[in-house]
# Entry
Amino acid sequence: MTTASTVETTATAADAPAELTDGYHLVVDALKLNDVETIYGLVGIPITDLARLAQASGIRYIGFRHESDAGHAAAAAGFLTKRPGVCLTVSAPGFLNGLVALANATTNCFPMVQISGSSERHIVDLKRGDYEEMDQLAAAQPFTKAAYRVSRAEDIGLGIARALRTAASGRPGGVYLDIPAAVLGEVLDAAAGAATLRRVVDLAPRQLPAPEAVDRAIELLANAQRPLVVLGKGAAYSQADEQIREFIESTGLPFQPMSMAKGLLPDDHPQSVATTRSLALKNADVVMLVGARLNWLLGHGEAPQWNPDAKFIQVDIEPTELDSNQPIAAPLIGDVGSVLEALLERTKPGQITAPASWREQLAARSAQNIAKMAKRMAVEHHPMRFDGALRAVRDVLAERPDVYVVNEGANALDTARNVIGMSVPRHRLDSGTWGVMGIGLGYAIAATVESGAPVVAIEGDSAFGFSGMELETICRYQLPIVVVILNNGGVYRGDDVNSVSSDPSPTTLMLHARHDRLIEAFGGKGYQATTPTELTTALTEALASGGPALIDCVIDPTDGTESGHITHLNPAGITVGAQSTATK
Ligand code: ADP
# Structure
């Protein structure tokens, strides 16, 4: 335990000096007691000493340039380790910057705790105008799984235990913990303070499904003609890799991995239908969702994307998720590991199979699609296009399954998701449920900090801009991260023209921006690649160096689709030209 100081507190000379502690020390002691090893944050009033103290006590503190990036890093750490990632922010503006990441973590079901300092309650609550005044607890409430405030130093242990438990148990999510400056500075007797700390036992207890629920699901699968399993990032998160593999392989069921579930089984696994997804979804008659929601990413389970007569089995830890879109014929509430263990235990040998005609239908379409894609990928374009660049990245990464892949952008995301094969669980992190931009460098930093392994962050040039300043963080900590920017000079693409003034169009970015020179400012290695061959050489060298690097890939500005694969989500409207005429 850390103590603040030793002072004489009473009048009698015979008394031994009392050991004192304060809120700062208690926060650090409580985090250590609960095995928090890393804090991602950005210091300022009133938490600077908290970061210093954490560092002095052996907790690793990673300091960022923007709180969103620190928050995204904590969220990714939560996903990768199954323990809440901790983010530390300052009052009001810093808190709000971090809140974006906390909300994103909640949406993605990643466990995370944002601890923020806050201003004086008695001034804030009467709106007297304090430094960085804000009722942060109220602001956090709607965007988080839970929000708590500690109002007395003696409650710090309780607050931290409650935040960690809430973030990790049940459906994981983001928890906000407000600690006012006055509480951090509160002094109390060290022994009394230590007695208030608590260690959380079994942070996320297993949740087992009822046997009759398991039998109901088995019955459905056993009678299916065209069964399909969809693996989502909840399956990846659960770290039930062995059970998932055994269930899929012992039954022979075809499976569709969602993007962050790629690698649970290798993408080239013969039962993967990733290359024939639309046929699989349209025809499956029984679908087992494993840690995957029927949200927009799965077309809400609706026709025409899905067979309107499909019956759904849903494996999820969160009961209220069920029936949120399609009726769930067989709910399986529990953690993925426990549910799959129960399924394996209660399925009789040969009871669940994938009928040969279904397997053959999927395999035939898959072979066609793979051949089509190989043909497309083999074409050499000058200037380089997304396909050529990603072919080069794919081939280098095929030799390096240890590398984590972070991916965001529009076309950079859509194309890389399909082209870059994964063979190891939880090695792909991307824009996720919100389709958010800005996770890139925060996720990349957490991936290497938590694992020690190298990271390749595949970024659209627009997406990179949201977290680009963290290049300095990457260089300051000398992290083995290679940022690959697919630079087509625009949001979506770089050839849009503003027909009404000399200002750039809304989607235009600087066409010949040399992002490689940005990293050089911080001592990292910059490359520019104009061909797939140059990219192969640069990426191979950068990975071998084990240090920070950035490769600016010059992509044809005419390559790319507006809004990527989700153009249909733009509301249909009159064209820009027609609109300007109408408003004249
Ligand atoms: P994807 O986007 O990959 O389809 P989603 O984020 O939509 O995945 O779904 C993840 C689901 O996994 C959430 O509904 C969440 O409640 C669930 N989940 C998270 N952790 C577990 C777990 N350990 N066991 C079972 N379900 C889980």
Observations:
- The first helix runs from residue 23 to 33.
- Confidence is low (pLDDT under 50) at residues 6-11, 578-584.
- The chain has three domains: 20-195, 211-365, 379-569.
